[in-house]
Amino acid sequence: MPSYLSRPLTVLGLLFLSHACYSAYEHSTLLTPSPQSSTIASTSTSSPPTASLPLDISLETIISVIMICVGLVVGAEELKPIMWRVWAGKVERESGGGGPFQGLEDRLGFVDIRAKRKEFADWVRDQDNDKK
């Protein structure tokens, strides 16, 4: 299917979908009781009538959704193959050699708590020696 048909197909599908929604709304309003009959219905033991949507409204909804999906898929851009090395090379060239994972490569490793504690103790001793 040519791509120039995608927009009209999508618009037509949206038009049919809006008509199906309006038809479903109208169908539901026909089933609700009027205010005058609500007093009569409250005295009777029968429950309010419930019915499912007619088949033509359901089919119109399904067909319109399919039309919208086909229109959107046909009008989409051509998919491009994804190759990791090509993508990473392109990103490195664009970012000046940094690469997408430069932050992960430059991060510090685990902190050695014992070494940090020793450095702090040495610093405190040096501070005490400087005060004397």
TrEMBL record:
It is a multi-pass membrane protein. Residues 1-23 form the signal peptide. Its main location: membrane. It holds the Pfam family MMgT. It is found in: Endomembrane system. Keywords: Membrane, Signal, Transmembrane, Transmembrane helix. Belongs to the membrane magnesium transporter (TC 1.A.67) family. This is Magnesium transporter. InterPro entries: EMC_subunit (IPR053279), MMgT (IPR018937).
